[in-house]
Design goal:
about 30% helix; six-stranded antiparallel beta sheet; elongated; five-stranded mixed beta sheet; about 475 residues
């Protein structure tokens, strides 16, 4: 993942003291923080928005309790920092790990804290080919902003453990932080031990004022990293810091400045995109299309969409009506799918595979093992798939699932969704009638008789229904 230069510019980590900004020497005494509650239970719309920034797209009108949504956010953040890789058992005792800077061969903290997956790496590469240096705009996605900020903090570490201040553009909230030390979990994973303080009062607290003063008003002023962070980004960052603060042993007491006695001790790990299994786990809606509660009935007209009760069905009718009209009386064909052909094994590279954690290498090692069914990220809600017949007439290279011989004899076709959380094949040999029912429609109506987009409903671990006579508009993926 790129570290946006604007983040590094706003994180002024040079050897000079602060020149401007609300935490600058000349404006220190006039800084005010307007009241804004950060901490505790967030409003459900805020939680849903933050989950969405991480790729967890729950229905906006979900009836899941606030506590469950809050729990999902906490668990998603733990998954994003790959917590179980670093802390298989609690607590984490940083004193048992060496200093990151002890090993001179270690890469800079900025580089080591980067995390991205194959999908993001591809996006970055394609953007560079088009002359776009920064494909990820700042301040549009809170989760991406947190990842950028962590790299800015890593840059501050490389510059000499500078004190750090994060604040939103409107100066309504700020977090004072300092990295005490950087520990090495492994060559790819630094652990940043930090102290932090966030003020909820209407003005900068005396403790924070004293802390800032010790750095900017001394005879030898210290450089300070001043990082812009939106309110939503601060929500996520504070959640991370508070969750991790509870994972340190009481006996761990690193040296801190006299002005930091009221600060909270915590740690930060590299944060990256959620893996495919995490996306599936936190997105799954196996029930009502509106709220996710157990579905007890189906739309009587189309029979495709499921609801928990009449109230949810009535609430969804305005948006469902156009699809319902097109699905009414539609013909659906059940299919049984597989991950690979009998006697072979498939190596799948997922866009969710993490580059820094060698996920691709691990896939190579596990390729010959029997794999379970793909996670159901759609529940019982209809979704769009692409059906692609394996044929020698297809343009471009064969899909990795297809052997040369299979591509020539048309013995299978591929079904996948936009995110590739479902990426499977249907074999003619498993049921010729099922296979032909779908393949004949694609050959008759699909692009070059090879591929087309279809509505689908996941009906089981290894089964799916494909709509044969009602088709979505052509998708740009």
């Amino acid at each position: 993942m790129l570290c946006h230069p604007q983040k590094l510019i706003s994180a002024d980590c040079g050897s000079h003291h602060i020149r401007s900004g609300p935490f600058g020497k000349s404006k220190l005494s006039s800084l005010n923080l307007s009241p804004f509650v950060i901490g505790g239970m967030l409003p459900r719309d805020e939680i849903l928005g933050l989950l969405s920034s991480m790729g967890v797209e729950l229905p906006r009108k979900t009836k899941l309790p606030d506590a469950e949504l809050d729990k999902r956010l906490s668990k998603a953040l733990d998954s994003a920092q790959y917590l179980t890789r670093v802390i298989p058992t609690l607590p984490l005792d940083p004193s048992s790990y060496p200093s990151w800077f002890r090993d001179k061969s270690n890469k800079p903290v900025l580089d080591a804290i980067r995390r991205h997956n194959i999908g993001e790496a591809t996006m970055i590469y394609e953007s560079k080919m088009k002359g776009i240096d920064n494909p990820v705009p700042l301040y549009t996605n809170a989760f991406m902003d947190v990842r950028q900020t962590l790299m800015s903090i890593g840059n501050a570490c490389d510059s000499g453990m500078n004190p750090i201040v994060l604040q939103d553009p409107g100066q309504s909230s700020g977090i004072c932080m300092r990295v005490l030390e950087v520990k090495q979990f492994d060559a790819q994973t630094p652990i940043l031990i930090v102290v932090f303080r966030h003020d909820l009062a209407g003005a900068l607290s005396p403790a924070s004022f004293q802390w800032l003063s010790s750095y900017v008003t001394s005879d030898t002023p210290t450089a300070m990293a001043n990082i812009t962070a939106t309110m939503q980004e601060q929500h996520l960052l504070l959640r991370l810091l508070r969750q991790n603060s509870k994972r340190l042993p009481v006996s761990y007491k690193p040296k801190r400045a006299a002005t930091e006695t009221s600060f909270t001790l915590s740690f930060l790990l590299p944060v990256g995109p959620l893996g495919a299994q995490d996306v599936a786990k936190y997105n799954t809606n196996n029930g009502c299309a509106v709220c996710g509660d157990p579905a007890k009935q189906k739309c009587s007209r189309c029979g495709a969409v499921r609801y928990c009760d009449a109230a949810c069905q009535k609430e969804d009718w305005k948006s469902h009506r156009p699809l319902c009209a097109s699905w009414q009386g539609a013909k659906w064909q059940g299919l049984t799918f597989a991950l690979e052909q009998p006697g072979t094994y498939a190596l799948r590279f997922s866009r969710y595979d993490n580059v820094q954690h060698d996920d691709v290498q691990k896939r190579l090692e596990r390729a010959k093992e029997k794999q379970g069914p793909p996670a159901n990220t759609h529940g019982m809600t209809p979704f769009i798939v692409k059906v692609q017949i394996n044929s020698s007439q297809a343009h471009g290279p064969a899909h990795p699932l297809f052997s040369t011989s299979a591509r020539d004899n048309g013995s299978n076709f591929l079904i996948y969704d936009q995110r590739r959380t479902l990426d499977v094949m249907v074999l003619r040999a498993s049921d010729a009638a099922q296979f032909s029912a779908v393949a004949d429609v694609v050959r008759a109506k699909g692009e070059r008789g090879l591929k087309m987009f279809c509505w689908a409903i996941r009906t089981g671990e290894w089964t799916i229904d494909i709509c044969l006579d009602r088709h979505p508009e052509w998708q740009m993926w």
